[in-house]
Batch of 4 targets.
Target 1
Amino acid sequence: MAGAVRGREMDVILHAVVPMRDGVRLATSVFLPRGECPCPVALVRTAYNRMGVAGWADGLARRGIGLVVQDTRGRYDSEGTHVPFVGEDADGWDTLDWIVAQPWSNGRVGMMGDSYLAIVQMLLAPLRHPALKVINPRFMSGDLWRQGYYCDGALSLALTWSWLCLEVGARTSKAAFTPRLDLERLLKSLPIESLDERAGVGVVPAWRQYAAHFARDAFWQGMPVRERMDSYAVPTLLTAGWYDYYPNEAFRNYEALVRGADTPELARQHRVLVGPWTHGMNASTRLGHLDFGPEALRENDSSARWLECLLKGRPVEEFQKAPIRLFVMGANRWRDEYEWPLARTLFTDLHLDSDGAANTLLGNGRLRTTPSSREAADRYLYDPENPVPTLGGNHSVGPYNPGLYDMCLPGPYDQRPNERRDDLLVYSGETLSEDLEVIGPVVLRLWAATSAPDTDFVARLCDVFPDGRSINVTEGVLRGRFRRRQWDRPEPLEPGKVVEWEIHLQPTAYLFRAGHRLRLDVTSSNFPLWDRNLNTGGNPATETRAQPADQAVWHGGRYSSRLILPVIPAGRG
């Protein structure tokens, strides 16, 4: 084949140059199954060095599918200037045009990939290129502010800073430099907007923009992703991890795809797959402090199977009969479902209660199945200079963020080191007499007051094992100025006023075993995963002053603070 090098099991075109409509040329590599061309092709467009995903070619080639891997504009060997998300739809279209013109292509193309490799698919799909037949965007948001670079108002500090300043802010990654920085001191320094310069990488315009636009204003509204899903014309497999940042987004995206589909047939073809993963599929059954068993690895080849099924014209049910496949942690098995939330869900309230001292795991905070008639408050001082450190969790910081990863280990970890802090409230349930299965969205309705014009509340659901380990299952945050959930219209809080906060934790699928207890942790920081709320009500990007805040969580009587769990009745799992 012209221009190809004969490898051991496939033919390789190491450095093809693909011209874009404006003359910029993008570096591209091609891996072709020997003896099967012309063939269907999987296209992967990456901002993280195309050689890093060349290994995907092996599994695809065994299925008779070629792989085309491309450095996106302005990254690694590609020409041009990289501006995150800008122009990826047009560059993707021009790349598809190039692929279908090649003699080794049969004109049928699918796409796959994680994170930025997913967003390029989501931006291209609405254009409806005739060659694009199927996509698999994995581990990515459909709303880049709501659940991405911000999280319900809190800046995703570790993710956003490292990604923009050390990864995509230049042609190649500077992430290997990160462990040489004093990260805790650096990320606590103010103002946030100039963290780029204090990290030694100069002014990074994208970082300054993301930090400045702390509300979901016109800047973020000009990056529509989910809003364009009614223009998709291709079957889409949405892949997510329970311990990633985006499981909630996967279900929101799925609902948008089904609702906006042109035909019932297209709606029926969309699929969701959520496993015991963080920001990518795990090569081990173990994540953090839990081992999910051999079933955890069963779907690791799902992308290749999905593309093979659809690119070769097979019915989607051959890949996965039900539209939704979930890994139920604790039970450690996969389950197929037909709707979200599950139709058999019993949304169950667990009410917060205490004798007024729920501070630390040695306090008297309780979770009750019935509300107390007695009003009480648990109080703590939140000091931004001494934030609760990130310890595990549902997020997308990973080993590709060296140094920072050590501060933000994703996944399930024993929370007792943090639960010994006086600025963290702990509410524990009774020991379970039988297994309790929780599958679906998790919400905390919290009645609380603060002395500050703005502050955060953080919620975390944990599984307390018989040996005392308190393993985080899911978590969420809400910034006070967005308490009314009007994301483009922040409002200050009235200091001292008790108001209701609706905190959305990530959805989960988790079996709490008999002999275990449920636990809810409530605090006001999770650093450096989220930026510290400085409690001043000022501009988070430019503020240089922090102040402590007196926090009060109320429950009982008029204050129905409660955790709402999606319980699946016993025997109906």
Target 2
Amino acid sequence: MTAPSIQLCLALHNHQPIGNFEDVFEAAYQDSYLPFLELFEPYKHLDISLHTSGPLAVWLQGRHPEYLSRLAALVSQGRIEIIGGAFYEPILTMIPSRDRRGQIKCYSQWLEQHLGGAVRGLWVPERVWESELTTDLAVNNIQYAILDDYHFRRSGLNPDQLTGYYITENEGHTLRVFPGSEKLRYLIPFQNPQRTIDFCREMAHQQPGCVLVFGDDGEKFGTWPDTKKHVYQDGWLREFFDALTENRGWLKTTTLASAVGSTPPRGKIYLSDASYREMTEWAMPVEKQLEYDQLADEMASDDRWARVQPFLSGGFWRNFKIKYPESNEMYARMMYVSRLMERAETMSIEPSLLDRARDFLYQGQCNCSYWHGAFGGIYLPHLRNAVYQNLLAAECLVERSQHGGQPWVEATKEDFDFDGRDEIRLANDRLVAWFSPCRGGSMYELDLRDLSHNLLATIQRRPESYHQKVRAGQNRGSDETSSIHDRVVFKQQGLQQCLGYDQRLRKNLIDHYWDDEVDLGSVADGVAWERGDFADGPYEAATLVSPESIQVQLKRSGNAWGIPLTLTKSVILKSGEPELGISYLIEGIPAGRSFHFGVEFNFAGMPADQEDRFFSDADGRVLGHLGSRQDLHDSAELELNDQWLGLRVAFSMDRPGGIWAYPVQTVSQSESGFELIHQSSVVQPHWQVHGDGDGSWATTMTLSFDAHSSDNQKHVEQMLALS
């Protein structure tokens, strides 16, 4: 008896983020993208839909144009449908509507030019969906998009309704939305191919003629851990393609476009704001995530769990900006540049320069470093650095054009990070320093324009739900190739001993009062007790502006050990100078009383454990790499050198004292396992503070930045060339 027919849409999503290493791109190409294409080409009866993200497509154009030519040939044969998207793979709900529309339009044009065929479908990055997206997709001639069946279950559909596609609407604009099968995501390619055939046969009997959709990462086919051997060397993919071919009498692989053309919609639906299921769990606060996991484990054996689970929802993607304040800082920086671009488009700026600046902005919207789950995400310094580099490049191009390349300086005050409280921005043609008076009067971003580099793009050490697995300290896989969601693998030994947490964000100008006996080890390990309320308390802020310099003054009346003190710190930035002048004044010190006082600085994007990244003293003597601990006494200077980046940071102070330096390292999760990652190097000068006759103590410090010749600097100069 012939089985009822069914259509299976295989939609692959191939992506590498902006800033990923060249060898990672190449390895993914050799391990996933190329072998999949080579194996697929001879199977003439199989059709697929393919989304290749813009960063990857541009890389392929430069490194492997022959791959794009082969794709174009299959597109012309109707065997591959090209799915579009936003050019640089942003979370669509994270960026302004004008940028969403711009990215989608640009990428559709690029794809049609290089691969042929009309782009009518769209890959929604990380399947983060909000209803307002319908309008922006529809006005760009996008007819359909892929989400997860989780979105549809949250909106009230039953399992037997999770096939085909539905119509959704916003402001009178309509869009077709496909539910991608979570069941298929976990079957392919981790289970025997016959399991997928059996599932399709079951669905064909239940719903003859229905459409099933598999939509997931192409990296599952060779790049994810252990999958290269499983998928290619052990023959899983060939066996899968053979099985699809053998069953093509009733099981037809088809493109999303063909499915839309051959089947009517199943109905109309308004979807809940959601992402895929796993991401809703990752977006929750850690304590709620642990509670959710425990509840799910306890309920798993309960017969009612399958009925109850669809009514439980996890977190909301936007709350990654709450869970990780560093993500919100990056987001706020992106929004600042987006608004700058919007204003620049009304000015008389060379159109080609605006196009370049807009492309840098779009690259800075690439989603991967704005969140964290099974992949490294925000914990990966090279991804954060790439976002900031592109955002700063966009800003520099516009501002250099506006100022005619001449030195300038300015101060602005507004709520840059959308928390209802004003921040302060000091900027000249060489540096930009951002201050948060309400958060300890700290400097939360420090941009070097010569290198398009944010020296404060670091991250706090904080608890993560998976740290429980790290503490357990045992690798875990399965008898078959495991999904990355099920693996427990340690990339280094002894990670349990590396778990430690910070009391606050890692910023500059954080003011500490320590017990006299506190030493480098206790501060570096995060176990020293804070004895004042200055590190986190709000400061009053004022700016002083002159034609050649700007100054921010931050003042707080607080206490240390219960003793009232007033602390005033000032930062001066002069026109044309790559240097910050910093002064401190503490008032109200009782006669005969001393305080152990320190000021914390963090320097990010300068990796550790490399011979060309090191600390040195005023005489140029190398003290150790940037991941080493330094405990200097009676010192007034310290330098940080990164010869690859092309940067020397010189720190000096007029009052000699102690200087502690130590690395900040996080234990975080990636698809390949748990790993220790260097995030920043801390420099903390500290003194035994004694008041003068008026009960006051003062010091001045200087931070200067020398960008010298390096391959990186030459690359940045090319990015910022005005012609």
Target 3
Amino acid sequence: MEFEEVIALSKSKLQEGFERFVPSALGMLFVFFLLRAYEILFIWRHIFFQDIQLRIILVGFLFDLIFFLQMSALLCIIFMVFFLINKKTAVIIFRVLGIVFVFIYLLLILYFSKAALPLGSDLFGYSLAEITHTVGSAGGFNLIYPIAFIVFIALIFAVFNRFDKIKLPKSVIYLFYFFVVISVLGAKNLAPKSREFANTSDYTLAVDKLQFFVAKSYNFFFVGDFEIPISNYYYDTDNKDTTGFKYVDSNYPFLHIENSPDVLGNYFNIGTKKPNIVFLVTESLGKGYSGEGAYLGSFTPFLDSLAQHSLYWDNFLSCGGRTFAFPSSIFGSLPFAQKGFLELGNNMPPHFSIIKLLVSIGYTARFFYGGDSHFDYMDTFFKKQNVSQIIDLKNFGPGYSQMPSSGNGFTWGYGDKELFEKYFQVINKDTSKHRIDISMTLSMHSPFLIANQNYYKGEVDKIISKLNLSSDIIAQDKSYRQMLSTVVYTDDAYRYFFNQYKKRADYNNTIFIITGDHRMPEIPILNQIDRFHVPLIIFSPMLKRTAIFSSVSSQFDIAPSILAFLNKNYKIQIPTETTFMGSGLDTVRQFRDVHSYPLMRNKNELLDYLYHDYFLSDKILYRIDENLNLIPSNNQIMLDKVGNLFDDFMQRNDYMLKTKRLIPPQFIF
């Protein structure tokens, strides 16, 4: 065969390949659009229970189209390589890849239907055992799944076969590739940005779930894991930087002079005996459905009544969007490391915490949890705090009933009332002079199954009938009855807890600290800061006056303030230098924010930074108003400033990970 004939044959085969690819690709686009239609019709309303704007629907299809065109560029290259080798092989490879992509897309939609958030790189922050545990809570394996999968595969093959037989005009083929090129060249500018949506819920509805997962995964594996020279972080020994800290040792990047003021002492009657401190961390206790001003109405009547006799922060923030962050944030005010401080496991560097200090002066520390405390390495963390006893699923003992199981027999463990019953069984036998007790509740967690659930659903309906809510909010609340029933149950468990504790002789010398580990993700969030919005209640019979604070604080600020209180009023010595991320609770009653620190959504997404009344999220700057609404800001000077603070934290954090240095040896208990 002549050279010219070979060239002509190759060109002909290339042309045939490019023409054959387009119908197959359009078949995949058709399936994508079917999945989007399924998502709109059966999932959007199931999650958000509101009228979906036509604009959001159209933008959703636009997201799908743009990502499909970008994905087609890669698939076309793969297709053409195999097509030049063997036509049938190319078709088979494309169909297999198409089915894989479509199936993953379907799984991501189903995940969204459970979590009300698209799945990103947080998937890679959990071990296989933790993923299996979580999947089990959502229903686990069912025989219908493989049957449905087989039917699904057959339908996809039928669609691809149908589209492969379509003969498209050359003008359509040229137009297809033109849009593919445009989508690739304009990848960063074509798709709508999150800040262009009225709220986070609209954005999470519209975004292509497969594109979101791919983008987050790419950033995690190829962008986020950057290397920083260990001497490259900002360091200032002469002046306080804009975090408010005076750092003291370049070898320990978070070590600073501890000068948090005692802002709590004036609210207490100070006795001669050191107080017991009881931490009650509440699974998924979000401000959106608890406390005065809750936009869904408050479903915690007992805690609301307790708050009226307490110190109450209504603009309080968790430091993480999942449970992994609360132990290190509340008790150590510690940085996040890479996937959360606890994820370091036995490699956690030596660190300082309120628990360690109190144990060192004679306090007895215990941790109570109704589930498996090894989840998120909670047990590892608390053992490192010298906690003397951990009560959890493994040693709960007889006489207690676990929460109802889901269809596959899975249960997280013991409900909140059982947890508190176990708590009193243990401490009623305790003879310690001083205690620091930590309880973590569990019932407000997917799959939201509790004992006597129909009764608590009825209580939800009673609360709704008494609240002055709009018809839209009432419709949402009724649709969230399963979740909200667990909120009412946990509130009832708190009523039991305090009724029992009042019978104890040490009740009048105990300080109770109640907050949420994070907001419930299954109820859609309003904006990125809403996922962290939880209440904080500090209650004690020792209080001589109460107050409601609208100033912003976070879990990072609890340990500095409690220790400053104990230091000034009970002469408990604390280190003059600490690594606290927080500077203490703000007790100004009007709205303001004087703090500066990052917040971590999940184990693989550190994307948010709070600086005064500015919030940087996904590299977009917002102003925060008194209702914690986020207002997009075009202040370039402030964007640079907050961005530099965020970068500075990341570099200190990276240095700490490389060197395993948090505190000098003389501060180790």
Target 4
Amino acid sequence: MINIHEKTLNDLEFSTVLDQIREHAITALGKEAVLTILPFEDEEQLMRELVYVNEYLSSYENDNRIPNHGFDTISKELKLLKIENTYLEVSSLQKLVSISLTVNSILKFLEKFKEYYPQLQQFSQHIEVNTSIIEQVDAVVDRFGDIKDNASPLLSNLRKTINILKGKINSSFSSALNTYHNLDYLDDIRESVVENKRVLAVKAMYRRKVKGAIMGGSKTGSIVYIEPETTLQYSRELNNLEYEEKEEVIKILKELTDYVRLFLPLLKKYQDFLTQIDIISAKAKYAQSMNAILPEFSKDRSMNLRDAYHPLLYLNNKEKGEHTFPQTIGLEKDSRIIVISGPNAGGKSITLKTVGLLQVMIQSGMLIPVHERSYVCLFDRILSDIGDNQSIENHLSTYSYRLKQMNYFLKKCNNKTLFLIDEFGTGSDPELGGALAETFLEVFYEREAFGIITTHYSNLKLLANELPHIVNANMLFNEKTLEPMYKLVIGQAGSSFTFEVAQKNGIPYSLINKSKKKIERGKVRFDATIAKLQKERSKLERTERSLKENEKKKLSEADKLEEVNAKVQKKLESFQELYDSNQRLIYLGQKVNDISEKFFEDKKKKELMAELFRLVQIENSKRKKVSAKQKRAVKHKETQIKQEAEKKVEVIRKKKKAAKEKAKPVEKPKPIIRVGDRVRMHDGRAVGILDAIEKGKATVDYGMFTTNVNLDLLELVEAMKK
């Protein structure tokens, strides 16, 4: 029987988690139900709930999304259905149709995709798909929320008669309107509407001349509103018929309500089912927001949370864009109690609360933000003593309150209990309080309880070192800056860095030295030794991390070099093959050239043919007999090698060409030549003056003579001075 005290839930801020889950619920009843969530008392029920949430979460990662489960609360309608001779309004009936359609769509979906959601489908088995309510309401109510004319024969007749009467009223009113308008008895507005009836706007002086019922007048008294006598009789008839129509509608709604009343238990199931689905959906969305998973459950009583995040801290930091440090912590049979020590502001309390809150969440059917290789177990009772518990109402000091808590712990603690105590033993004389705390810890140990405590007491650190199933742990600090690293290290106690922190915050060294003399020398040395060990541990951590990173880099570089070497070797082999092939072809070409030259000299065909035949035979003797397919493969390979070689050559050619282009001097823009400039021919030395330019031809005066030349052949020597 699982029982988690309300104080533990408050200590771990479980209500804040519920508030955050509530934001993800989409129905009013779902939001209310989320706030009532408590850890499950039954283990089987808890396991089912966790699987439901996990299956719902998986729907966000595939194309088969579970249909929308939103609904309007029908609690009022369910209460009315319990009372005889009551009837539901059309809006209420529409809500029942809507909830029926929603449930049916989810049930059909879960049946269709039961391979994906087996447990959710099993959860919905107790509810049947039923369309009776939908069909009956649809037969009576139209899509605009009005009762259909054919809902009953009497209603149909009444509405036909009403429509005829309304036509008569309109025609008789129009007739009276025209008559009195022609007599100039009416005001400019002619007509108005009073009490949902059309009335004539009669000038006050003619009110006695218009027959009918006076329905009112204007504020100024200049107009009197009169319903014509001709329409009065029809209006009375219409009132009677509308009353009968209303009575018939109520009768139809009563009959329909009596039919729906038969499905009261089913409708209650519908609402409960959708509320439960809303809770499961809200839990799944909350899990998605912090990458939470369903970890494995260990068969024996042990737990190991890898890369565990505190949900509230993680989501708060995520909103601010800040980093959250995860923790890895485990409780096994051989290390069932962990004593965390070290200076304040290092993350001890957060680590304690992370374990506690995640345990409460998993036992309340929620997924938790941990690494997928984590595993958890269940505890029958979770006890906590966290924060300042000074009780003003009960006139108890912090220490008195904590002693009261310890007494409660001693009564309830057993091998199925998880206890969480922050700042264990504080609130009294350090020596006496520490001794009492040590005794309490020994009792918890003897009862084989699991737990995590945080402390500054040296005797508790020593006890953890002496007993086999208790382990020391500390939060790492940077030994130079004394800044927290927010990383838990199991196996070593942490120094409180009391004097180091004081020195860092500017306290004079003389005062610190004086303080050291006031306490036992052994205690100072003990704390100093722990501090030194912790600093060494910190250095080793960094060195180990650095070595691992270097090792990874070297392995990666070795792999790359091996890959490059293999590629180079392959290319060398390919180029060697190409070279050998080309050498053979050069040799054959040389032989053919020698034979050709010999034939050119002696013209002996017979010897030529014999030489050529012998050459072919020698070459063929070197060849292996291969199939056509192998020939094609060899040919293809040779082509590939040649293409690759050509590509390499082409790249080299391009580079050379680019280098040449770069080396070329940049041509200066050609100056514009105008009439009056001193010019000369490109290949000449004589300088003349440009007299005229016409159609690309230039006339140049050299003094002794003039000449016509192409303008392109001239170059500027000196521009004409302006």
